[in-house]
Description:
The chain is of the alpha/beta class. The chain has helices spanning 2-16, 23-31, 63-73, 90-98, 109-121, 158-162, and strands spanning 52-55, 58-60, 80-84, 101-106, 127-131, 144-149, 164-175, 180-188, 191-200. A 7-stranded mixed sheet has the order 5-4-3-6-7-8-9. Strands 1-2 form a two-stranded antiparallel sheet. S-adenosylmethionine (SAM) binds next to strand 2, helix 4 and strand 4.
Amino acid sequence: MKYEGRREKMVRTQIEARGVSDPAVLRAIRKIPRHRFLPEAFQDQAYDDCPLPIGHKQTISQPYTVAVMTEALGLTGRERVLEIGTGSGYQSAILAELAEWVYSIERIPELAKSARELLDELGYDNVAIRVGDGTRGWKSEAPFDRIMVTAGAPKVPEPLLQQLGEGGRLVIPVGDPYTQTMTRVTRRGSEFQHESLGAYRFVELIGEYGWDK
Length: 213
Ligand code: SAM
């Protein structure tokens, strides 16, 4: 109950007040127990207006950032979505509420394992998680209707563009390691339209088509 009240306040003051209005996105954020995706020591801060540590030098994104990125995908419930950077599994759960299938890739095996266990416990049976380098995408399951990258990239990884279906959308923070522009790419045939959705700061996307480790 304590957490439900905090979650409602978070949605109203951090997310709706800043302009996110897609009812399905707001419903998913209202439903999912964000505190469960955090280490016990940080559960009390789960509904604060900031990113938080999830171990292995990684973070769960600020609630508003999750809301903006999710809204930018424009989900209808019928999509197959590829997520790069499973992390805690929180964003995967949001996507699982709003799409048909979620394919999520995480490079750190321990994070992938704990996300899998929690998503199973919460009953999400439309999320597939794989350990690996997400900058290469998930070729055997392509094309995807939507792709979301939740780590900062030096450029849009070419394999992700190739694995985006016709009319598909890809949302990814692109820039240097300190600041990135949230970028939405829409595929129209062989054309890729780019839009900028503001400045953010993410942990690095590490991999063949990302930053070197
Ligand atoms: N979406 C996550 C959540 O809701 O908790 C937060 C993701 S965190 C900001 C970024 C994640 O991307 C980290 O867990 C990191 O290990 C992962 N990552 C970085 N480079 C990656 C890559 N090439 N492939 C897959 N995951 C990667």
